[in-house]
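Example 5.3 — Multidrug efflux SMR transporter
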Amino acid sequence: MAWTLVIIAGALEIIWASGLKYASSTLEWIGIVALIAISFTLLIQAYKRIQVAIAYTVFVGIGTIGTYAIGVYLGEPYSLAQILFLIILLTGIVGMKLSTTEEGEPN
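Solution (predicted structure tokens):
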């Protein structure tokens, strides 16, 4: 369950981080602040079952890769070197997830 919270929090991070560039009205900024609050609330709940460093690493990695992908989709420039390093980052994130269990689960 805690990993589900981290994944949802990371997905929300993609939305709010991408929205920072495009928000122009007060209502849009209120939405972004709300998404930030929800995202971090979910992450804090996950910390109760997963080591902080591991959960935060996966959360930030999801946000980084997802925000980069959204940027490329919206027309921002990219390079093969950046994609290579994102693959390396993704490998590390998957490795962190696979090598960590929630508290109470066997290793």
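Remark. The chain has four helices and no strands.
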